[in-house]
Give the backbone structure.
Amino acid sequence: MPAEDAPRSKAPVRDVVVVGASAGGVQVLLDLAASLPGQFPACVLVVLHVGAHRSLMPELMSARGPLRASHPEDGQPLQPGAIFVAPPDHHMLVDDGLIRLTRGAKENHARPAIDPLFRSAALACGPRVVGVLLSGRLDDGTAGLQAIKRCGGLAVVQDPDDAEQPEMPRSAMAHVDVDVCVAGARLGQVLADLVRRPATLPAPGTRARQPRPERTPGETVFVRLRAAVRRAGCRDRSGRHLAPATSFWKRGLPRSESKSGSIFSRPGEST
């Protein structure tokens, strides 16, 4: 094999870990920071529902383990072995290897919200992403985990029986083909193993998934995700297709009103 062709055959690594938590998730995040190894080869991005209130999570997580945690600056590159925590009142996104901060509309009553981070990481990094959903109320993160799975990444969920607030993990378990369900105390160990496995291998202790057909040269992750949205039939009042921007993006819902006021309807149904 020619030397210039070698990198193309190398399987992608899972070097982006996105974590979402809400009520009951602080202690799990602190335990995660304490259990990750100092040579952790992935970038960890964390969203905790803090609203506009000051967050001390970077300082608390840095004090608990070997990895440095911080609020990122807009445009800061992803960095292996670093923990970035979404700053108050800002969504945190991933775009072309960079972290983007925005004060876009709230999702699931929250800013920062989990779904925007998960969706953007799925689109930007595809199978390199491991999505982790922890304790919390309602269902923020479910649609984002769906996007991660559709783009070839892995979905890890805290065991609902282990979570202080089990609604978010239960929602994910009900609507996403979860790869690993784990107690919070074992999360660091599981992630340390996952990020060292090529993205083509199944998660440890889970069933192997059927291999996906090779993409055509013109096919991209974005095109595949957009096609999935079209199949789900999500439209606004004017009939335009909507991106999976809220947790209502689930198959089988004939019509519902989003928390931001948008209407989702099946094709052909009047609004």
